[in-house]
Design brief:
The structure holds 2 protein chains of 2 kinds.
Chain A: E1 6-11, H1 17-26, E2 31-37, E3 42-49, H2 54-93, H3 99-108
Antiparallel strand pairs in A: 1-3, 2-3
Chain B: E1 9-10, E2 13-18, E3 21-26, E4 31-35, H1 36-43, H2 52-59, E5 63-64, H3 68-82, E6 92-96, E7 100-101, E8 113-114, H4 125-136, E9 142-148, H5 156-173, E10 176-182, H6 190-198, E11 202-206, H7 211-217, H8 227-241, E12 246-251, H9 260-269, E13 276-278, H10 284-293, H11 297-316, H12 324-334, E14 354-357, E15 362-364, H13 367-376, E16 382-385, H14 391-395, H15 398-405, H16 428-436, H17 444-463, H18 467-478, H19 482-494
Parallel strand pairs in B: 6-9, 6-14, 7-8, 9-10, 10-11, 11-12, 12-13
Antiparallel strand pairs in B: 1-5, 2-3, 3-4, 14-15, 15-16
Helix pairs in contact in B: 4-5, 11-17, 12-18, 18-19
The chains are: A alpha+beta, B alpha/beta.
Chain lengths: 109, 495
């Protein structure tokens, strides 16, 4: 059996390890993943596709890169709304009177 | 992606790229399709705040540019409304009044046994009353008692005992009380019908389609298919109880998966007002007979899509005929209301929305949990027994808390960032079953693949922004005819 694997590198100044791991989790049906952080700061991803067809491998490579990018976007936008999400859920089940004060404190943090 | 100098901030949402558009869904279930280019501007804080897209996103709660506390209060109210099912703890109480059955269906997930197996396989009066007492300890203001089996008509005296004792207890409890009997209708007689009519008992039955499809799997124990007697009793029950008191579901097998439009035609011929198209449950006889009658998930999904397209056509042409599961998902997508559905909610409805009492008084978190126990002897999801445990022992147990806390999809990898998460849920029993039987690849992944595919199908339709189709969806959700919905839409348009 031919053992084909793809190596990809992601710059950790641009992409977080979490974005790469989340993308790999979503693609676990299509490939096996080994993820390492390198001394250079790069994130190394070794991908073993489950289907060995060239077209499949080519689209896997492109789609996975875009998927990592989307996960990076998710992480960045959710960092912005995370405190708001927690406030909405808290307010839904145990409403507080000093919401304005809490928001003010959180936005200064 | 910088917030500096931005005039707006994000509210919690998830997204999924779908071709040239990106689907956004927020935590309270509002959705919006944004062109990819506009989405990129949006997440970079560069979307023009006077644009239609921005104003839509603001109205739907994806973004804020003003006073935040009011926005949080509004979204909190919507979030609480969406999770309203948590307050109905526990409203659905299923009673297995007998394990005996007069049918021997190839895909029976309940592992029913022969009709003359003796009354040790029936729930007795003492157990039945204990179960009713536990059910009435539930803080929920609504109690729905559902009779299951085996075939519940084979132990109808205990059905009557449960109905009457529940009514007696309800004189002081004053809850909204409903009864549903899940029956194959074979043993229906005049006496039973009269009683069901007098107590306003609803009927849920099974019809797999026209005779050649129905009889392929739904056999009488005495031999032969059950189509003739079932359809004859179905008409009789409809005449006596009213069509609105009877619903039916069908189980998709190898015999029906490519012929679902024929099944739908049969439902319309039988004057049934809706259909619930469900996949086979991998328990009991279904587990053993899967190679003979089961179909793959991809075959099911292909068949479902074909059936759904056909149902939409029929509805657009004026036949009001919802697919029940799609209608439930659409209620989640299009309305702010809570729709508890034991098999698809987060946290799981197992135990907190529905519970099932076996003939010996064992309490299971769901019907599948009971089937798991019958199929494999695994009692992981048995949370007590009405003879030895109090309501507190059963419903406040560490075991139930553990099941519930492990089923919040908000905290699960994959689900946490899935765009469909606000509409979806978990099925811990099915997952557990997949693990104990070694079907690791068929557990959460199949569950996820199925639900994602159904959500994709519905959003494919919604992305068309077609008034006719949206009117059909609203007619399903509001239980109104298409003409009523069209009149309403026209009047709103005029106003």
């Amino acid at each position: 059996m031919i053992n084909i694997s793809l190596n990809m590198q992601f710059d950790s100044d641009v992409y977080s390890l979490k974005a790469v791991k989340n993308a790999a989790f979503d693609y676990r049906d299509k490939a096996g993943f080994q993820i390492e952080t390198m001394p250079s700061g790069k994130i190394l991803v070794c991908i073993t596709p489950k289907v060995k067809e060239p077209d499949f491998i080519e689209s896997l490579e492109t789609d996975f890169k875009n998927h990592v990018l989307d996960h990076q976007v998710r992480i960045e936008v959710s960092a912005e709304f995370k405190p708001i999400r927690e406030m909405i859920i808290a307010q839904a089940f145990e409403p507080c009177d000093n919401l304005e004060e809490i928001i003010h404190t959180l936005s200064n943090e | 992606m910088s917030r500096i100098n931005s005039t707006y901030g994000f509210l919690p949402f998830r997204f999924l790229r779908q071709g040239k558009e990106t689907l956004l869904v927020n935590d309270v279930g509002e959705y919006y399709f944004l062109k990819n280019q506009a989405f990129d501007l949006f997440v970079n804080h560069e979307l023009e705040t006077r644009s239609v897209e921005f104003q839509d996103l603001k109205a739907k709660g994806f973004v804020y540019d003003g006073y935040l506390p009011q926005t949080i209060d509004l979204l909190a109210t919507k979030y609480r409304t969406k999770k309203r099912f948590l307050y109905d703890f526990t409203s659905l109480h299923m009673f297995v009044v007998t394990r005996r059955c007069n049918q021997k269906c190839a895909y029976c997930h309940a592992s029913s046994i022969q009709e003359d197996a003796g009354d040790i396989h029936d729930m007795n009066y003492v157990t039945a009353r204990k179960c009713v007492e536990i059910a009435f300890r539930s803080p929920s203001s609504c109690i729905k008692i559902e009779f299951q089996g085996g075939e519940p008509l084979l132990n109808f005296n205990v059905v009557k005992e449960i109905v009457e004792y529940a009514e007696e207890l309800n004189e002081s409890a004053n809850k909204k009380l409903e009864f549903v009997i899940c029956t194959n209708l074979v043993a229906l007689n005049e006496k039973y019908l009269e009683y069901m009519e007098s107590k306003d008992i609803m009927v849920s039955t099974s019809l797999d389609g026209p005779q050649h499809i129905h009889d392929a799997c739904r056999k009488l124990r005495l031999g032969g298919g059950s189509y003739d007697i079932v359809t004859s009793h179905l008409s009789w029950a409809m005449e006596r109880l009213g069509r609105d008191k009877i619903s039916a579901l069908m189980t998709v097998t190898l015999h029906s998966v490519g012929r679902l439009p024929e099944v739908i035609d049969e439902y319309i011929k039988q004057e049934l007002g809706s259909i619930f198209i469900r996949a086979m449950n991998p328990f009991g006889s279904a587990f053993r007979n899967w190679p003979r009658v089961g179909c793959t998930l991809d075959e099911f999904l292909k068949g479902y899509r074909q059936a759904f397209d056909y149902i939409i056509q029929l509805n657009v042409q004026g036949t009001h005929f919802p697919e029940v599961f799609a209608a439930l998902l659409l209620t989640r997508i299009l309305t702010p209301f809570s729709t508890g559905f034991v098999d698809l909610q987060s946290p799981t409805g197992a135990g907190i929305s529905g519970v099932i009492y076996d003939v010996n008084g064992d309490v299971y978190v769901s019907d599948e949990a009971r089937m798991l126990s019958r199929t494999t002897g695994d009692k992981t999801f048995c949370i007590g027994n009405v003879h030895s445990d109090s309501w507190n022992d059963v419903f406040c147990s560490h075991q139930l808390r553990k099941i519930i806390s492990a089923s919040c999809i908000e905290a699960m990898p994959g689900c946490a960032w899935c765009v469909f998460q606000p509409y979806c849920g978990a099925d811990p029993v099915r997952n557990h079953f997949a693990h104990v039987t070694g079907q690791l690849s068929n557990g959460h992944r199949e569950f996820c693949h199925m639900n994602r595919s159904l959500f994709n199908l519905l959003f494919d339709y919604l992305s068309l922004k077609n008034d006719e189709i949206e009117d059909v969806f609203w007619s399903w959700i509001t239980h109104r005819t298409l003409d009523e919905i069209r009149d309403y839409s026209t009047n709103i348009g005029v106003a």
